[in-house]
Amino acid sequence: MAIWNPWHGCHKISPGCMNCYVYRRDESIGKDASIVTKTGDFDLPIKKNRQGEYKLKSDAGVVFTCMTSDFFLDVADEWRERCWDMIRDRKDLDFHIITKRIDRFSECIPSDWEEGWDNVTICSTCEDQERADIRLPIFLSLPIKHREIISEPMLTDLNIEKYLETGLIEHVTCGGESGQNARPCDFSWIMNVRAQCIRQKTPFFFKQTGAVFIKDGKTYHIERKYQMSQARKSGCSYTPR
């Protein structure tokens, strides 16, 4: 796994952005996360060492792209084409792009995108039912070869089975919210989405409990260092046989 952040900073657009970890982290060092700037890693996919080899090796696995911003952020329109060029050049890498701006997708893709690229997975977020019903119909209508749904932070129960029934969603990830002001995540929501995924034979990953976790009507406050391990111990993740 690798992380490529060609730019840093973002603008909040929906409920899931309220307690954004990027804003929290930047604020702790006196930085304004609403100011969007290119990073020193802008050209990471094509950077080479002294031997002329790519620093980002072919066996890097998944390259999570733009994790401290949004790849389809309008402020970054002038930089994105160059990023597509690098993604095109590195067909040996698997780029995963997570976005809350799937509605901007069509105006942000390169001219040779056609039906999508094999080495790009687009992940649309939906933190609540309203966002799911707005974003996922758009998501499913687009020319994308690899699609995933991410609900993190998960703020409500979700009914997404009609979207899974299309067979176009390759993976679903759910997780609670971290941070001091985290909103609660209910285990029943996790299990409901898991059940939908099992019925549709869609891989499911329970990533983290979040800081405020409700199970069987009881509320638990979970330290950050245990949120992922507790989710893992639950055994809720699902891979079809």
Rounded to the nearest angstrom, the radius of gyration is 18 Å
Number of strand segments: 12
Order of helices and strands: EEHEEHEEHEHEEHEEEH
* Mean of all residue-level pLDDT scores: 97
Give unreliable regions as ranges: none
Distance between the termini: 24 Å
Strand order of the largest sheet: 1-4-5-6-7-8-10
* Overall morphology: globular
Q: What profile does the largest beta sheet have?
A: 7 strands, parallel
Q: Helix segment count? A: 6
- The proportion of strand residues reads 15-25%
Whole-number total of structural domains: 1
| Helical/strand content category | alpha/beta
Helix content: 25-40%
What does this structure look like?
- The structure is a single chain.
- The mean pLDDT is 97.
- Helix content is 26%, strand content 21%.
- It has one domain (2-233).
- With 241 residues, the protein is of the alpha/beta class.
- Helix 3 (129-141) links the parallel strand 6 (120-125) and strand 7.
- The strands form three sheets. A seven-stranded parallel beta sheet has the order 1-4-5-6-7-8-10. A three-stranded mixed beta sheet has the order 9-11-12.
- The chain starts with a strand and ends in an 8-residue tail after the last helix.
Secondary structure topology:
Elements: E1 2-4, E2 7-8, H1 21-28, E3 37-38, E4 62-65, H2 77-89, E5 94-99, E6 120-125, H3 129-141, E7 146-151, H4 161-164, E8 169-175, E9 185-186, H5 187-200, E10 204-208, E11 212-215, E12 218-221, H6 224-233
Parallel strand pairs: 1-4, 4-5, 5-6, 6-7, 7-8, 8-10, 9-11
Antiparallel strand pairs: 2-3, 11-12
